[in-house]
Amino acid sequence: MQNKQEASAFVICDDLYKIFKVADIEVMALQGLDLTVGRGELVGIVGASGSGKTTLMNVLGGLTMPSAGQVIVDGANLLKLSTRELTTYRQVEVGFVWQQGSRNLIPYLSALDNIKLPMTLAGRTGREADGRARELMEKVDLPHRCDHRPIQLSGGEQQRVAIAVALANEPKLLLADEPTGELDSTTSDQVYDLLKRLNEEDGLTICIVSHDPTIAQHVQRVVQIRDGKLASETVRRRAPHPLASSPTRKEGEERALASTITTVGDDGSWEDHFEELIVLDSAGRLQIPKQYREELGFQNRVEMEVTEGGILIRPAQNLEQTSSQAEIQIEREIRGEENEASAGLLARLKGRK
Fold first, then answer.
1. In CATH terms, is domain 4-111+173-189+204-232 a member of 3.40.50.300?
2. Among 96-110, 136-150, 289-303, where is mean pLDDT lowest?
3. CB 99 within 8 A of CB 182
4. Where in the chain is the domain with CATH 3.40.50.300?
5. 151: helix, coil or strand?
6. Which of 12, 117, 129, 136 is nearest to 73 (CA)?
7. Residue 23's pLDDT band (boundaries 50, 70, 90)?
8. Phi and psi at residue 313, to the nearest 5°
9. How many helices (H) and strands (E) does the chain have?
10. Is the pLDDT of residue 323 over 60?
11. What pTM was estimated for this model as a whole?
């Protein structure tokens, strides 16, 4: 039975694995990844190179199939679609925006013709396609650039046309892989603002893969992938600005508080706080950040204890490297009860190896 979160989700990735074989070496790009994205949500996906985020985008786009698990988009299980249904999904249900302009736009076509091309492939031609293309050029604020080829457009303009191309067949899901990777900060903000407007006005579900450290300021939620699994999630919490209703505030007080504010509204009435949460997956697994593990001396074994405030995790004490959970349990009994019989059992167990 689906829980409430899954029932309202537009995208559901459940225990996804993806294994690539290079020569005789198998590389696991996704390792039991779980992810849900709500309908009409604007989500950022971040992670180091090789973490699996681009593989996830290709799976969501129907460009590659996972080795195990399931991926459901708008109620359709992509693993159960026929070849024809999957082609239709890629043409109509999902839109793509890539970092490299050469993957988004055909250089010898005008901006308008680039937008009309995916509609033509989907069987929409003539006045209908032309009208839709011009409407999209208006939507991305480039109606005066319809007849310009990509080489005549700036990098930011190329990406806005690329977004229009991705929207040509009115998809329900937009996937953007590093859409601002080759742009300066000002132009990047313009692209983010456009994506945010499309999300708010059209209710479009958007997933953005990015290395941009400021992406949390432009999206509703940021998920981080580490080693092929969802590791953490950064959520935005909006609250009234504590100084907004204080007409007698002093300049010094405002500067002191400003150092704790991440984002403040244009009218000074609200502020955004960003909170990073560790993700607990469906199997009960979580990833403790490397810096915490190193600082606290965590190795390959930990101890857990239920306390009044929650669960306490600490490095295991006085445990040598062991090869089985049975040995660990026996050593704990020896340490806790100094039971000579258990010690003899451990010796016999090791003697069989």
1. yes
2. 289-303
3. yes
4. 4-111+173-189+204-232
5. helix
6. 12
7. confident
8. -115, 125
9. 12, 14
10. no
11. 0.74
